[in-house]
Amino acid sequence: MVFWVFGYGSLVWNPGFQYDEKVIGYIRDYRRVFDLACIDHRGTPEQPARTCTLEYNPGAICWGAAFCVRGGPEKERATMEYLERRECEYDHKILIDFYKEGEDLEPAVTGTIVFMSTPDKLSNKYYLGPAPLDVMARQIATAFGPCGNNRDYLFLLEKALDDIGHRDDMVIELADEVRKVLWILGRGGPKEKKMVAAPHIPITSDIPSLKLRPRQEAVALDS
What we know:
With 223 residues, the chain is α+β, with helices and mostly antiparallel strands. The protein has helices spanning 73-86, 133-142, 150-163, 169-185, and strands at 2-7, 21-38, 49-70, 92-100, 109-116, 144-145, 148-149.
């Protein structure tokens, strides 16, 4: 027995579970966006964080890492239970082809599991939708929760993608805008790009709160 799961957010640098193989690669026809509310890891119901989900976009590719879990039904079940607790804001999973770096003609793995969210605010209470860059940056700069700052999540993702050799222009642009917000607020690091997590600084956000009820107790897992 074996299954593969594709990580495009915090799973890239912090999977948090025992895996048997990690492969750098990509999926097709989806792009990474910061349109998902996180209320129990990097944010709260009153001050939700913005974290990654996927948006269908024909011709796009999304780089990340695929993790293989082998070892029988018990190990698979325990891993999936962990992932479903951790990724609780994602309302569905899809199975998709995963392509290994440098091998573009045929997928390396078919049926790779990907957690994602329905892009509909009516049916998915965690879907925030797109927003102007400066609005997203201010929200990310100020939100924090049990697992830490929302901005740390963004900066660590920026660094992780750079480490695997596949920077994401949108992630870089958003991270630079967050640094600008921190500079303007007089609370955070230098203006120039620096791919490290910023220190924790509790700041009250003026972004309207998202009135949500967590589906379960907060757990100290990243998202």
